Structure formats: structure tokens, C-alpha cells
Amino acid sequence: MGAKQASRASAVRLYSFSSTADLDLALEQLPPSRLLIQITPATRLNQLFDRLHVASERQATFARTPTPLQRALEQGQPVALLGLESNLALQLQLESLLSPTPGLLINGLWHSFEKADLRVFWPDEKSSTSASTS
Fold first, then answer.
1. Less CB within 10 Å around the terminal CB: N or C of the chain?
2. 37-50: per-residue pLDDT in tens?
3. What pTM was computed for the model?
């Protein structure tokens, strides 16, 4: 049947697939420069965005380092997101990123991703629990 594109106009594109072959075919059609992010049930938001670290122990200051995913979304590099269906907590946290005007609250700061080129791949047999809770 092939992966079906559900949204074309926005920076965020949702694809459903019914088999691994469909998924593989859709991924092969992405540009080689794409960033592939595999979500698992154990993936946490702080692993995907804004790594916090101690900048100076002497002055007790912290700094943020953007992650490869964050930089890709800011720069418009294609991003393929797989496995989001396996992580309800992350689905809820990323809902604003999946909107027509992608953005996300990260460590208390709003980040707008106007250039985002995000493709979310979702298996046909899975429904989004987060959509049914809103």
C-alpha cells in the first residue's frame, strides 16, 4: 500500500505505514542529509533537546548546548522521527512541535522552529493516545 502522506502544506509531515517495507521505501526517498531519530519507550525530552551542563563550577553557572535534533529543526534540515507511538509521555510533550507552527517549551524557554522539516512516521495499526486525551 505504501506510506501515505497525511499533511503536505506545513513544515510537519505525518506518514502512516502498514509494513516495514513501506517504511523502508519512504525513508529511502528522504534526502541523504536527513537526521533519523529513533524514539523508544525510554526516550526522554531532555535527551532530544538542550543538553544542560555546568559551565563553571567556580561561578556555579550552567549552559545549554543545542542537540543535533534541535539544530536540524532550527536550520530546516530534514528530520525523520520514528517510534513516537511507543512513548506516550513524549507524545504529550512534543504535541506543540507537531503543530502547523512548530515550537516547543524547552527548559522553560519557548523555541520556535519556523524552518522545521519534520517527518513523523506512524504505523497504521497504532492510534495516538495523546490525540484522544486533548
1. C
2. 999 999 999 899 98
3. 0.77
